[in-house]
Amino acid sequence: MGANDPVQIVTSNTLTTTIAKTKANNTLIVCINTYNASSISISSVKLGTASLTQAKTASASVFGTTAVFIYYLSGIAADQTSVVISGSGLNVASGSGGVSIYEVPQLDLTSALDETADDSSTSGSSWTTGSSGTLSQAAEFVIATAAGPAGSLSEPAGWICANDSLTVWVSGYKIVAATKAQT
Length: 183
Description:
0% of the residues lie in helices and 43% in strands.
């Protein structure tokens, strides 16, 4: 494993997920993908009692509502074992969405999730985000998540996917060595 490879990756189809004990000062990133809920909102994402910060939300209406959320918490406490997501209209059951949780060491805590991009298109077979913009530093941990109609997703080249089943959601990461914009 490299310096920024996740120390744990957990995928789940529930809003309360048990994870291995966390290590102090790492960063926790939670990707939430939900599909076919009529109205979707998240009121909190917590690691133990600590609230995570919302980094990105994207949604589109295609045969219902598709939404993806990314939350993070830098400088996490040691020995935490539970991630709890609260909200309304969330459906992360198998075939409708999912949750992926990444614990990553040695991230720059001052600029976590400093570039974002999304594409809330409602048609077509190309699921791309457009450009993230130039990254602020080389050797960054890049995270991506997408949700869509069943059978519409495939594993993108160069990414390490967290979930094996690419039914209606996908989440993955890659570690880059340059400040090149990501798509």
